[in-house]
Structure formats: structure tokens, C-alpha cells
Write a structure and sequence with these properties.
This protein is about 65% helix and about 10% strand. The protein has about 450 residues and is an alpha+beta fold.
């Protein structure tokens, strides 16, 4: 697996990256929700009622009032209606039903619909920027873990090289001991060094396996963590090899970019600007609450309550002018202006911090480069000294203890060089990713 393989799998399977992508989708859906506010709303309603007694009941006396004339007329009418089987008391609204479809179109809402749509659009842009930041953060961690595994693999190679050196030395000492030219303590010292090296290899093997497990878990790759238990469905943890090279590394001078230009293209910078714009749109939403709103509507339906059932329709307009909330909204607008000023101050300050962060990363990059150069030089010196001592030991001018001590020093300088190279590569990738490099 190469570094690009790890980055690709991380982008596909990392939970944080996937959730950030879902946030972008949710923001786009919210933008579509806000867009629907421009269009009319259509609703269908229906209802029915049945009262125990009629809701409306009256006689002639109820119309003409309580007087002798009204009573006489009421008695006369009641007598006439009774002859025809009718009742002089008029009752209605004991039951009824209705069903209608209404359409309402907002004409003006104080600019809140426009501001709401722009705010939803900013929400989508903010979600995209946050998704970019999450991808970059995840990539930085993947790079760090990858180079950590690469360093452990490199250390395994160096230990294997030292193991071969000790094997050769052990054969030479055994031959010298058999010829009476070496002491038993010399042979014991070499064997003790062999045991120490094997213990280091065992510890390094375990660390490498754990590092691979951590990486594969973050990439969503299945594996068999146990080397002693066969699982044909999953590859063994030891079968995963991470391919990379410490050769041809880019220098800090080659990686340098202008901090001002790079910081302005960062997703963090866009988020700061979006925050200011969002505060201004929120202020416009509050301003819209102080302005009149106008809407037009139409309804058409089937009604039955008093007369015979019939179809009917109506057109209507609704004008709302806020009066009592003006004072409260005025204070709210003042508070929103303060929030806008705070967002602008934060944008200006954090923008300079972004530039400072890039400069800090570049300073750390140069420091890591210097440490790597020192480590390479130390390893070369230790290697030269070990070669010289090997030649001197062959002619018997130095002791075995001096040779083994030089071997330990060389091993330490190798690990120092590998760790310093790892630190530089991690710093390099962190700097390039923050500057927008792929």
C-alpha cells in the first residue's frame, strides 16, 4: 500500500470524512427547503360538525322584540304555520360539513425569504469548507501514521543488516576461539549482543504490527491480526507492506509558498468570511420582522351548513404591519450590529493567526530539515568508524568490546536518522497540505 492508497481509502471509509460529506448533503437539502419559500403553498382542508341542539334558533319575537304586538303576530303566524305542519321557530346550524383547497402566495415578507435563502446558501458553503478541513485533518493523520510505519519498516531493515553483521562476526569469533586466538568471554559477548538484537527485533515487530492495525482500522481494511491463527477470508497483518521511500525528499526551499497567498485560500479563511456574511444576513432577517408583509390567497371548496350544499370560492389578501414589536426589534438590530462587528474582528485576528500558523509550520520544517541533516551526518560518521574498527579488529589492533560498542553506536545513529527523517516528512506533508498542495 502506497501513501496515495492510504489517502484514498481514508477518504472513502473514514467516519469523520463521511459524516462531513453527509453534512454537505444536508446543507444542500436545507438550501432547497429555503428555496420553497418563494413558491405558493397549497393546502386541502376539510371538517364537519353535529351539535346536540341547533346553534342558531329564533322566532318573530326574537326579531321584533318583547312586546304585545310581537306576541300577537307570533301567535297568528304560529297558528297559520301549524295548519300547514310547519314550525314558527327557525333553527339551523345543527350540523354541517365543508372541504376546500386554498393557495397562498407570499408577495413581500420584509426581505426575510431572500435573506433566508442566502443564509441557506452560506450554510452549504460553510459545510463544504468544513468538509475540506476534515479531509485535510484526516489526511495529515494518515500521513503521520504512514510515515511512522515506514520508519518502523526501515528500522527492521537496519536491524536485519546488523544481524547479518553480527552473524559474520560470530562465525569469525567462533573460528578464532577454535584456533585458540580468542577467549570464551569474546564469544559470550557476541552471543549476548545477538540476544539483545533479537529482543529489539521482537519488540519492533510487535510495534510494527500494532501500527499497521491502527492504520488499517482507520482505512476500513479487514485483516487477520493473529499470525498463529489462519483465516483464509482475511489477509494476515504481516502481509501488508507499506511502500515508500526516503529518497528524493523535497527541501524546505522547494516547498515554500507565500504565506499571505496560501492563507487566503484556506477553508478556514473562507469560514471566517462566511461567518461575517451570516451575521449580516441574520441582521436582515431581524430587519424583515419590522417591515410589513403581504400575501395573496385563493380558496375554493364545497360547503354545507345553512343552505343547500354548494361550491364556492374566494380571493383574499393579508397585510400584516408590526406595531408593538418595533421597539424590541430595534434593540435586537443594535445587538446584531454588535455581533457583526465581533465577527469582523474575529475574522481579521484569526486571518493573521492563519498566516502565523503557516510561518510556524515552515520554521518547524526548516528545523526538522536541519535535524535530519545532522542525523545523516552522524550515521555516516558512525558507519565509517564501524568499518574502520572492523578492519582494525581483523588485524587485532582493537578489542571485540570496542567493535561491539561501535556497532551499538551505529545502530543508535541509524534510528536517530530514521526518526529525524520521519519527523521531517511529517512536517513537510503538514506544511504542504496546509498550503493547499496535493
Amino acid at each position: 500500500m502506497t501513501l496515495q492508497d492510504c489517502r484514498r481509502l481514508s477518504a472513502e471509509h473514514n467516519a469523520d470524512v463521511r459524516n462531513a460529506a453527509l453534512d454537505v448533503t444536508a446543507a444542500r437539502l436545507q438550501k432547497q427547503e429555503a428555496l420553497a419559500e418563494y413558491f405558493p403553498t397549497i393546502a386541502a382542508t376539510g371538517g364537519a360538525f353535529h351539535a346536540k341542539d341547533p346553534l342558531f334558533s329564533m322566532t318573530i319575537s326574537d326579531v321584533l322584540g318583547k312586546s304585545a304586538l310581537s306576541q300577537n303576530i307570533d301567535e297568528l303566524v304560529s297558528t297559520l304555520l301549524r295548519d300547514y305542519g310547519l314550525n314558527s321557530r327557525f333553527s339551523t346550524l345543527q350540523y354541517g360539513y365543508a372541504g376546500a383547497v386554498s393557495l397562498t402566495q407570499p408577495i413581500f415578507a420584509g426581505g426575510r425569504i431572500v435573506a433566508g435563502n442566502k443564509l441557506a446558501s452560506l450554510g452549504e458553503k460553510a459545510a463544504v469548507a468544513k468538509s475540506e478541513i476534515q479531509k485535510r485533518t484526516t489526511t495529515e493523520q494518515v500521513d503521520k501514521d504512514f510515515y511512522g510505519i515506514l520508519a518502523l519498516q526501515e528500522k527492521m531493515i537496519t536491524l536485519s543488516s546488523l544481524q547479518r553483521l553480527l552473524d559474520t562476526l560470530q562465525r569469525d569469533v567462533e573460528a578464532a576461539y577454535a584456533a585458540g586466538l580468542a577467549l570464551n568471554t569474546d564469544l559470550s559477548e557476541v552471543m549476548l549482543k545477538q540476544s539483545e538484537l533479537k529482543a529489539g527485533q521482537s519488540k519492533l515487530t510487535m510495534g510494527l504490527r500494532l501500527a499497521k492495525m491502527n492504520m488499517l482500522n482507520s482505512l476500513g481494511v479487514e485483516y487477520n491480526p493473529y499470525t498463529s491463527i489462519d483465516n483464509p477470508d482475511k489477509p494476515s497483518i504481516d502481509s501488508f507492506i507499506f511502500e515508500g521511500s526516503f529518497d528524493g525528499i523535497m527541501t524546505p526551499k522547494e516547498a515554500y509558498v507565500d504565506e499571505e497567498k496560501a492563507s487566503s485560500s484556506l477553508a478556514e479563511h473562507r469560514l471566517l468570511q462566511l461567518q461575517v456574511e451570516a451575521r449580516d444576513l441574520e441582521r436582515r432577517m431581524v430587519l424583515g420582522e419590522t417591515l410589513p408583509s403581504l400575501g395573496l390567497g385563493a380558496t375554493y371548496g364545497y360547503f354545507k351548513a345553512v343552505n343547500d350544499p354548494r361550491w364556492n370560492g374566494a380571493l383574499y389578501a393579508v397585510l400584516k404591519i408590526p406595531i408593538t414589536d418595533w421597539g424590541k426589534n430595534s434593540r435586537k438590530l443594535q445587538r446584531m450590529r454588535i455581533e457583526i462587528q465581533k465577527a469582523e474582528n474575529q475574522r481579521d485576528y484569526l486571518s493573521t493567526q492563519l498566516v502565523l500558523q503557516l510561518r510556524k509550520l515552515y520554521v518547524e520544517l526548516n528545523c526538522a530539515w536541519d535535524n535530519m541533516q545532522i542525523a545523516v551526518e552522524a550515521e555516516n560518521l558512525a558507519r565509517t568508524r564501524l568499518d574502520n574498527l572492523n578492519a582494525d579488529y581483523a588485524v587485532g589492533s582493537v578489542t571485540l568490546t570496542d567493535l561491539l560498542r561501535s556497532e551499538s553506536t551505529y545502530r543508535d545513529t541509524q534510528e536517530f536518522r530514521i526518526d529525524a527523517t520521519l519527523d521531517y516528512l511529517s512536517a513537510l506533508e503538514a506544511y504542504r497540505l496546509r498550503c493547499g498542495a496535493e
